[in-house]
From TrEMBL:
Keywords on record: Endosome, Golgi apparatus, Membrane, Signal, Transmembrane, Transmembrane helix
InterPro entries: EMP70 (IPR004240)
Tagged with keyword Membrane: yes
Annotated compartments: Endosome membrane; Golgi apparatus membrane
Family: Belongs to the nonaspanin (TM9SF) (TC 9.A.2) family.
Protein name (record): Transmembrane 9 superfamily member
PANTHER family, sorted: TRANSMEMBRANE 9 SUPERFAMILY MEMBER 4, TRANSMEMBRANE 9 SUPERFAMILY PROTEIN
Coiled coil feature spans: none
TM ranges: 204-222, 234-258, 315-339, 351-384
Its membrane topology: Multi-pass membrane protein
Organism: Gossypium gossypioides
Annotated GO biological process: protein localization to membrane
Pfam families: EMP70
GO CC term (a single one): Golgi membrane
Amino acid sequence: MSFSYYSLPFCKPKEGVKDGAENLGELLMGDRIENSPYRFKMCTNETEIFLCQSNKLSADDFKLLKERNDEMYQVNLILDNLPAIRYTKKEGFMLRWTEYPAGVNIQDAYYVFNHLKFKVLVHKYEETNVARMRGTGDAEVMPAQKEAQAQMTEVLSGWKLVVGDVFRAPSNPALLCIMVGDGVQILGMAVVTILFAALITGMLYFYLILGITAGYVSVRLWRTIDCGDHRGWASVAWKAACFFPGIAFLILTTLNFFSTHLVGGYFGAKAPHIEYPVRTNQIPREIPVQNYPSRLLVPGAGTCMHLCVEDWKWWWKYFFASGSVAIYIFLYSINYLVFDLKSLSGPVFSTLYLGYSLFMVLAIMFATGTVGFLSSFWFVHYLFSSVKLD
């Protein structure tokens, strides 16, 4: 948890503590920017600047300083909207840090870092007197195995028997389309953010802009499942716009009110739906009873083995098979809370931590589930369009 710098008995500015201007990303991250007593003059070297002399520490102040030192709290400094960089040398390597420790504990003795040395680099342009700050701061078969081989061949040809059912619409098709569309949006935001090293504010902008892609994928997948019928596309686009934000964060629903999902949904409705390579039978094929749960084939053998046991209900299974990694992440976050975040005091902070963890787990499930579903969809489409069936 982040705390105000002045929650500790440090020197305060003479004009009083004032909150600095914060952007949307800083607000969502919980950063608090406050003014400091340090003052810099352009192109002027100054040494031994005395700030203040603190009052005698009370028992509560001393206890708080010990707790923050034991919990290894760090102080972040910003100069001209650039982070101050701390350099340390370890084993011949120069390390850079964007913070410095509030204090240190050496042999049960506590020390506070109250003497700071700043080095600010200034670049001057030759043609003008303008100066700019620069941050430092894939078996051979034996005869005894022929019977087993025949059984295996029969099993492996089972996928041909579900040719009339493999593209039968799944249950709750609209919900699947919405979740896949949101997964594309989140995945796209993550990729763009990593490639361009965007900040939190940039992530939000990318999320809103990529609503076009989410609406397009949701509506086109909806039309594909519904064999080209474009009725209800606007409803699917709107639901894709509100589904994830409505679950995760109510404010994002407000930001999506004038949603780019309708723009993407409009182009998705205009684009031709993906034609199935085989015709779906009028009567669904009965799925044979399995000698073992077919779901066990999902992680190891993948989509092909799942179809080989004549189970054509693959739509939802492959979304959740890939998205199930989020369960592990959520369980790990709980483990981290119980055994490593012992400093969180009270149920309020724990609830806030679990809420943010659930938010990220939901996003990870959508993104990874989308990768699994689209990969399976492409494979099934390619398989039945490439193989001649009798």
